[in-house]
Amino acid sequence: MSDTAQQQIVIVGAGHGGGAVAASLRQYGFKGGITVFGTEPIPPYQRPPLSKAWLKGEADAASLALRPPAFYDKADISLRLSTTVTAIDRTAKTVTTDSGETVGYDWLILATGARARRLPIPGMDLAGVLELRTAADADQLKAALGPGRKLAVVGGGYIGLEAAASALALGATATVIERESRVLARVASEALSHAYQTAHRKRGVTIELGAQVAALEGADGHVTGVRLGDGRLVPCDVALVGVGAVANVELARDAGIACDQGIIVDLAARTSDPAVFAVGDCTWRPLPHYGRDFRLESVPNALEQARQAAGAICGRAPAAPEVPWFWSDQFDLKLQIVGLPFGATHTVLRGDPATESFAVFHLADDNSLRAVEAVNMADAFMAGRLLISKGSQLAADKICDMSIAMKDLAQP
Ligand SMILES: Cc1cc2nc3c(=O)[nH]c(=O)nc-3n(C[C@H](O)[C@H](O)[C@H](O)COP(=O)(O)OP(=O)(O)OC[C@H]3O[C@@H](n4cnc5c(N)ncnc54)[C@H](O)[C@@H]3O)c2cc1C
Questions:
Q1: Which one of 82, 298, 322, 323 would you pick to mutate in the ligand 1 pocket, going by the greatest count of ligand atoms within 8 A of its CB?
Q2: Ligand 1 atom closest to Cα of residue 280
Q3: 367 partner at 20 to 30 Å CA-CA among 38, 54, 208, 353?
């Protein structure tokens, strides 16, 4: 590694990716200055529990932290919280903050994440209409839930379904309102969607499918219900709008860095400017196992790209690309997804969804495995990860034969 002691790295965004890249830089031996700017007032923390264990009261605030507070001082990482970077000057190699400060860099790493998508409908500004992206959002949601409270969730995606499950655990009721004909329509197979609809309904969540949301209605400035396109009102004390996220690319785009639906990076997490890297939810990245680019919103992706960027800066040989993976916890259902269904033409089921332990295998025409959605079936997830990374082809009759152990499917 070249001598890095005189170099300065600025990281924009103190979330999962920003925190991880700072730690990886030190782990890989970077000796120079590291400054992390973050809009939020707290050190890097994990967002997944915000809709799960933390919302249910099963995890305390300290357990959300990515690293103990003392880590940053010890690692000589300067955390500049409650500070937003407002501009990048790539010629001068400086960033400017909202307090007007200008800070120079040798390497710049953008880890600006994504923000909740807003719906262009009346009532979005009523009190009690919430989104769930930050710890502050989760505080508000948790305070609004409890026995007898009514939660309406607009959007049947992962965050909305997790919040609905957590609301029930807190004694509240939950109605999930989804525009499409099934929940998780954008991100999961039909079999998985139907299993989750059944599981939620069985446990007491109301699900409205094919339901347009026309407006959020309120009294005295506070939400009282969600008006549907067909005129019906779903009454609520609190409405959570979970209709996806938009990458925070504006800072990069304004600085002339190439962007698509995220900041365009290569497999070293490098942007169109060789001195600027980007990691996490804000990136539009190559997926070598699928021969295309995509934007991922997951912790494993943020961690992989953090290692890619830190490794490139520290002159390490690039690691083999990982197969993307993701998880979601709802009630006692542990969903683990590995891979993406790009190029898949058919699915094969292993196990019976009625038992709430099953997996959906996504295969291409040549029977090569593209993705596995595993519910309470960890061995299918583990084997799927290996099989996808090896480009393995699988026989459908073997996948669905429960007498063949997953580890034997994984043997070529
Ligand atoms: C409720 C919830 C549940 C989730 N559950 C799962 C899960 O189960 N499994 C999973 O894999 N993933 C899950 N995710 C997604 C996962 O948390 C994200 O993929 C991950 O946090 C991405 O890290 P990031 O650093 O890219 O973005 P973030 O963690 O969002 O961090 C970005 C940070 O940058 C800051 N920022 C933005 N612009 C600026 C600026 N100009 N100046 C300074 N700071 C700035 C933002 O304020 C933010 O703090 C969940 C996300 C949420 C919100």
A1: 298
A2: 26
A3: 353
Q: What is the mean pLDDT of residues 268-280?
A: 98
Residue 122 domain-assigned (yes or no): no
pLDDT at 62: 87
Task: Verify that 308 and 360 share a domain, yes or no.
Answer: no
Task: Give the pLDDT score at 412.
Answer: 55
Closest by Cα among 327, 246, 320 to 289 = 320
318 lies in some domain: no
The reported pLDDT for the residue numbered 351 is: 97
List all residues whose CB is within 6 A of at least one atom of ligand 1. 12-18, 37-40, 47-48, 50-51, 84-85, 111-113, 132-133, 159, 248, 251, 280-282, 297-300, 302, 326-328
CATH of the domain at 194: 3.50.50.60
Mean predicted confidence (pLDDT) in 242-264: 98
Residues in contact with 101: Cβ distance below 8 Å, sequence separation at least 6, in sequence order: none
CA distance 206 to 299: 29
- What is the mean predicted confidence (pLDDT) over 9-26? 98
What pLDDT is attached to residue 3? 78
- Indicate yes or no: pTM above 0.90: yes
Asked if 317 and 13 count as a contact pair (C-beta separation under 8 A), the reply is no
Q: Are residues 20 and 92 in the same domain?
A: yes
As given in the structure block, the two tokens for residue 115 are 């923000």
The yes-or-no verdict on residue 387 having pLDDT over 90 is: yes
Last residue of some domain: 258, 281, 313?
313
Structural domain boundaries, residue 83:
8-115+246-313
Q: Choose which residue among 42, 112, 327 to substitute to test ligand 1 binding: the one with the highest number of ligand atoms within 8 A of its C-beta.
A: 112
Structure tokens, 350: 């292993």
Any domain includes 171 = yes
Clarify whether residues 213 and 138 are in a common domain. yes
**Residue ranges of the alpha helices (H) in 228-355?**
250-254, 299-313
pLDDT at 406: 86
Distance 16 CA to ligand 1 centre (A): 6
| Residue 349 CA, ligand 1 centroid: distance in Å | 32
The residues, ordered by sequence, that sit 6+ positions from 396 with a Cβ below 8 Å of its Cβ are 348, 363, 367
Q: Let me know if residue 324 belongs to a domain.
A: no
Question: pLDDT by residue (tens digit) across 213-246?
Answer: 999 999 999 999 999 999 999 999 999 999 999 9
